[in-house]
Amino acid sequence: MNETKKIPVLERVMKKNEQIAAEVREQLHEKGIVTFNFMGSPGGGKTTLIEETIKRLQGKKRVAVIEGDLATTIDAERIRHYGVKVLQINTGSMCHLDIRLITQALEKIDLSDIDFLFIENVGNLVCPSSHDLGEDYRIILASVPEGPFKPKKYPVIYKEADAVIITKTDLLEYFPDFKVEILFQHAKEIQPEIKTFVVALKGEKIIIDDWITWIEQAKPKKR
């Protein structure tokens, strides 16, 4: 009986969170802000991608960043180097950001002075999938060293994703079993409309143009 009583309570909490997220999304839309929720494993390249994206958008889009981590301000300091507004959220033992934390962070940002809001979620492929942060687009990063089967192993986070980006492709020669087409095929089996991108941010050849072209054209949208 105790377990059955807990279920309606959890459902009410989730419904309330979804309602707040919808309200936050509407507030951001009123300001013309497009919001991106970057999700992926620890070490998957989220911060590096955000850094390079900011560099490419300078002079075109005004960007603010909310950084989520269990501890430290290391990633926030990296982003701050590029002259954008950054807010660090340390979650302690919590494995994801939630709308309550995002709402508190937004109170400290001048929303009249940004076009894009980047949220870097805590590195995790499970917890963040169930939490709407008021974003327009959910971006999943999958790095080459992680292997091509992440969509099959973690289908829930891919089901609601708008784009999947394969990162660290400069390492492909060291991971001969990694096949880009396999990961994209698995992702599309879960989410047929998902956008797919390949990036390389190290080494002799930088690959990021397709991603930048897409994000530059992104508009506010309802989830």
Q: How would you describe the shape?
A: globular
The CATH architecture category equals 3-Layer(aba) Sandwich
Q: How many strand units?
A: 7
Arithmetic mean of pLDDT: 93
Structural class: alpha/beta
For the record, the count of structural domains works out to 1
Distance separating the two termini: 35 Å
SSE string? HEHEHEHEEHHEHEH
Strand order of the largest sheet: 3-2-4-1-5-6-7
Radius of gyration (CA) equals 17 Å
Helix content: 25-40%
- Residue windows where pLDDT falls under 50 for at least 5 positions: none
From the 3D structure, determine the CATH topology. Rossmann fold
Which percent band covers the strand fraction? 15-25%
Quickly count the helices: 8
Task: Give the secondary structure arrangement, pairings included.
Blueprint: H1 2-30, E1 34-40, H2 46-57, E2 63-69, H3 74-80, E3 85-90, H4 99-106, E4 116-120, E5 137-143, H5 150-153, H6 155-159, E6 163-167, H7 180-190, E7 195-198, H8 209-216
Fold and architecture overview:
With 223 residues, this protein is α/β, with parallel strands linked by helices. It has a single domain, classed as 3-Layer(aba) Sandwich (Rossmann fold). Helix content is 38%, strand content 18%. The chain is built from eight helices and seven strands. The model has no long low-confidence stretch (mean pLDDT 93).
Q: Which key features would you list for this structure?
A:
single chain, 223 residues, alpha/beta, Rossmann fold, seven-stranded parallel sheet, 7 strands, 18% strand, globular
